[in-house]
Design a protein that fits this description.
421 residues, alpha+beta, Transferase(Phosphotransferase), domain 1, 3 domains, 4-stranded mixed beta sheet, 17 helices, 11 strands, disordered N terminus, disordered C terminus
């Protein structure tokens, strides 16, 4: 086994050639930069074109490095699974114990990859952590990525702002805090004050994300397909295409603004829900300007209690809000983590729920929404015939008999059924 592992990590001739290509690319990038500096001193117009070329070379090389890290990490995981589980009897206690160990080691490697590559890799890690279908070792390990986004330097962010808004910041704002109040994997949020003294929160997309997404998604798809080829039992190849659809929607801030306004309209009669107003004059595909709203994170129980807010009432209100999204509106917030839901100490009930980050939404088909409502009604009443009919519509057939256990923790023959009726 040790011999095979050593041979796996040896560099064959073609690998040495690829390494030479990488070294050469690095040298070209450096020489190009020096050549541009020399030529620019005599021809300023040449500098504009050449700097763009240098930037493309750097971006391409950066993409190669990121992809190489990903390939190395996934290859290490594949080797770990192949050799650690070899010879173990399937379904044995030893097999499951060793499998859990490999899951954990592999998840830690993925976590390190996401933290190093940043950007879409962090977003992908968050996406995997939210999936209930993946092993617990992965979801629990990658969950730490929710709070590990590193903000960009303000100089890069300012360039995005000026390019999108068409004016210098001093012409648009009385004040602009260069230190972000929040940072995520694809954007960061700054606090500012408009000329009319309105406080706003400005969400700015990081530069170069669309180009970076193409490279990163291609790499992820290649690695996922390769893993499926090596391990036929691998069933997660669909996650890359689903992630690509999700992230493409999230990169469009115009769509996010529309989602925000639609949600505000849906909850216009609900006095406990607040959605920040969008400032359309200062909103583009890459910059979203909205009303600034303050509050405590919904899971910050200590701060809620200090503010005199009952956490139990907040939990009940939150449950009712999302139930209304699912059962009434059919338009559901797709990223409801604690950073996106604030509790403000104001409102008729002594608090209000502020819904943020409307980039990802799931719109339910009207037929599905109505059937889903009927299913829950049938589950509460333990109407076995209705559950079976709905199970056929959902495409699960005879397995619908397990719905009561999955969703309510009761069997179809529960004695509670007699008590209700």
């Amino acid at each position: 086994m040790a011999t095979k592992l050593r041979s796996f990590f040896k560099f064959p001739a073609n690998a040495k050639k690829k390494t030479l290509y990488l070294i050469t690319a690095t040298g070209i990038a450096g020489l190009t930069h020096e050549s541009v500096a020399a030529a620019s001193s005599t021809n300023p117009n040449f500098a504009l074109l050449s700097n763009d070329i240098v930037e493309k070379v750097r971006f391409g090389f950066h993409g190669i490095v990121r992809s190489s890290r990903a390939i190395y990490t996934i290859s290490s995981n594949v080797v770990d699974y192949k050799y650690s589980l070899r010879g173990l009897e399937l379904d044995s206690d030893e097999f499951y114990s060793k499998l859990s160990e490999v899951h954990l080691r592999s998840a830690k490697r993925l976590l390190k990859l996401c933290e190093t590559n940043k950007g879409f890799y962090v977003k992908a890690g968050q996406f995997v952590a939210a999936m209930r279908q993946v092993p617990t070792e992965y979801s629990s390990t990658l969950a730490s990525l929710q709070d590990k986004a590193v903000p960009y330097h303000f100089k890069a962010v300012k360039e995005v702002l000026v390019r999108n808004l068409g004016q210098d910041l001093s012409d648009l704002f009385l004040s602009f805090d260069e230190k972000p109040i929040a940072a995520a994997s694809i954007a960061q949020v700054h606090r500012a004050m408009l000329k009319d003294h309105q406080e706003v929160a400005i969400k700015v997309q990081y530069p170069g994300l669309e180009k970076q997404m193409k490279i990163d998604i291609t790499t992820m798809a290649f690695l996922s397909n390769a893993t499926a080829w090596i391990f036929p039992e691998y069933r997660f190849a669909w996650m890359v295409s689903e992630f690509e659809r999700s992230i493409s929607r999230e990169l469009d801030f115009i769509q996010e603004a529309k989602n925000s306004e639609r949600t505000a309209k849906n909850f216009r009669k609900n006095k406990i829900v607040r959605v920040p107003r969008v400032n359309w004059e200062l909103t583009t595909n890459q910059v979203l300007t909205m009303q600034f709203c303050s509050g405590h994170k919904v899971d910050d129980v200590g701060s809620l209690k200090e503010a005199g807010i009952n956490p139990t009432k907040v939990a009940k209100a939150l449950m009712e809000v999302f139930a209304e999204m699912v059962f009434v509106h059919g338009f559901v917030h797709g990223d409801p983590h604690p950073g996106n839901i604030l509790v403000a100490p104001e409102g008729r009930s002594g608090f209000s729920l502020v819904l943020l980050d409307h980039g990802i939404y799931k719109e339910l088909d009207e037929g599905f929404r109505l059937d889903y409502c009927q299913m829950w009604n049938a589950l509460i009443l333990l109407d076995s015939k209705k559950i079976q009919i709905l199970g056929e519509r959902f495409g699960v057939g005879k397995y619908s008999r397990y719905f009561p256990v999955i969703f309510t923790g009761r069997t179809i023959d529960s004695s509670w059924k007699r008590d209700v009726r």
